[in-house]
Amino acid sequence: MVSEPDYEHHYDQDRDVREANANAAIITMLFIVSIIVSFVCVIYQVMNYQNEKAEFERIRRMQFMQYNLRKQQERHYQELQRQQYAYVQPYIVYPVVAAQYQWTGNEQSVQNPPQYVQAPYPPV
Description:
This protein is an all-alpha fold and 124 residues long. It is built from two helices and no strands. The chain folds into two domains: 85 residues; 34 residues, no CATH class. The chain is rod-shaped, with a radius of gyration of 51 Å. Keywords: Membrane, Transmembrane, Transmembrane helix.
């Protein structure tokens, strides 16, 4: 039979080995947990960068569309102005000298010639 002191000596040796194995297991677990946390942080950074890049592209596209819409509205406004002024007929106003010159041939008329005449021909 094993004596009591021999058993305690073997138990103490096994306890040291068990503590060393437990310390190694704890260190290994901490190392694995730190690797997992680092991996999750890297994935988060990559996803965050991609989201920021997508948001930046979306804002840039929106600003470009607003710029194109503003330019299109300006072109439409200029086209409307051009169409509005395309149908304006010139209003010719003759000065008094031309009106008197036009009215000098009409000796039947007893009234004074008008100051301004719009039509380029004398009245009948």
